[in-house]
Design brief:
Blueprint: H1 2-32, E1 36-37, E2 50-51, H2 55-69, H3 84-117, H4 122-139, H5 158-178, H6 185-203, H7 207-227, H8 236-255, H9 264-267, H10 271-278, H11 280-295, H12 308-314, H13 318-339, H14 345-365
Antiparallel strand pairs: 1-2
Length: 371
């Protein structure tokens, strides 16, 4: 386990330094070519032009670092008593995950870059997401097949498994895109999710997927050096789509993962509840904003200033306090999943869901500061 831990650390450090040393050049080029987001729209919270293509370096650092440190031997830590047949199967499964993840990320990267630079029609973007979903769900077989007793459901029929997995992918990719509205927010929430999932997967014995999570975490730490307020660059769609897709894959893998190697305190948490707790903030914000828009009779994809982070900004908290409050929100919900781990899955989910929604609604009932 110690040797595999070093691989995770090296992967994260490599990704961090790739971003740290290459991002300044990208910022310079983006300004020279005027690849920037200008202030002016009511929903925007920045007051100066900022480059929008930071996702290019995030993508490059993830691909480079994950390929460099991808384990050659015990891809999944099966333990000392694992036979060669088990090890071969584990290595083959991890290789397929890597192969199809790479294909999906490259496609998402080009969709995001085109959207950041010249725009992308919603129809073409939807077709691209369907293609990525097909690669991940149908070709790679990254699917939710068991609900582990949640709502009394265990094994899912194939058609339900496929539909649910597609839904999870689409929701999370769009959720991370929607929360990318305040300096450091999407990167920080992605960092918390990556570390939580990466730690869980490492303790479960899955080194290859844990490495992907920690490489993403290292990239995001490096990016936050330039994205913390006042931001010198935004990640754009090229970054948020990649982050959302990786988090979606990690969430699905956690739900369907073998838990026999986990410590007892993690083994007691139903995997669907832990997976949802880790990404509670983007899920709740997306659900709330979609309901709000549909009630008002507008498209759920129409841009506005009604996100949770917008409300916190309207309370004169500023970028830094807003992001820190939402980081705390994410950590509190994850901690609550540990507190409720021995409860019945349905009761635990009800408590977690109610708490997450109630906390998210606090800014909307809290009085605004006077001007």
């Amino acid at each position: 386990m110690k040797e595999h831990g070093y691989i995770l650390l090296l992967g994260a450090i490599t990704a961090f330094f790739v971003v740290l040393f290459t991002m300044p050049s990208l910022i310079k080029v983006a300004r020279m070519k005027h690849l920037v987001d200008e202030p002016g729209e009511q929903r925007k919270v920045h007051h100066r032009s900022v480059p929008t293509i930071g996702g290019i370096i995030i993508f490059a650092s993830i691909i480079f670092s994950y390929s460099l440190w991808f384990p050659r031997a015990a891809v999944i830590n099966m333990g000392g008593d694992a036979d060669y047949e088990q090890m071969y199967f584990a290595m083959g499964a991890a290789y397929l995950d890597f192969k199809f993840m790479l294909s999906a990320m490259v496609l998402l990267f080009f969709i995001g870059v085109k959207d950041d630079i010249i725009g992308f029609s919603p129809v073409k973007k939807l077709v691209g997401h369907m293609l990525v979903g097909y690669i991940l769900v149908m070709m790679a077989g990254i699917r939710i097949t068991d609900m582990h007793g949640l709502f009394g459901v265990y094994d899912l029929p194939d058609y339900v498994s496929i539909a649910l997995s597609f839904f999870v992918y689409v929701v999370l990719v769009n959720a991370f895109n929607l929360i990318d509205g305040v300096d450091g927010l999407a990167a920080g929430i992605g960092l918390i999710a990556a570390v939580a999932y990466g730690t869980w997967l490492f303790l479960a014995g899955d080194v290859a997927l844990s490495l992907l999570a920690f490489v993403l975490a290292g990239s995001l730490v490096g990016f936050m050096v330039f994205n913390w307020h006042p931001a010198r660059i935004f990640m754009g769609d090229s970054g948020s789509l990649i982050i959302g897709a990786i988090i979606a894959v990690l969430a699905i893998k956690v739900i369907d993962h073998d838990t026999t190697r986990l410590p007892i305190y993690l083994k007691q948490i139903p995997t669907p509840i832990f997976a949802m707790a880790v990404i509670a903030y983007p899920l709740v914000d997306t659900l709330r904003i979609f309901i709000y828009r549909m009630v008002r009779g507008v498209s759920p994809f129409a841009a506005d200033r009604n996100h949770i982070h917008h409300r916190l900004m309207d309370m004169k908290l500023g970028h830094r306090k807003t992001t820190l409050i939402l980081y705390l929100y994410a950590l509190v919900v994850i901690g609550l999943s540990l507190v409720t781990r021995k409860w019945h899955p349905n009761i635990g989910l009800m408590v977690l869901g109610t708490s997450a929604v109630a906390l998210a609604m606090l800014p909307f009932v809290w009085p605004k500061r006077s001007e």
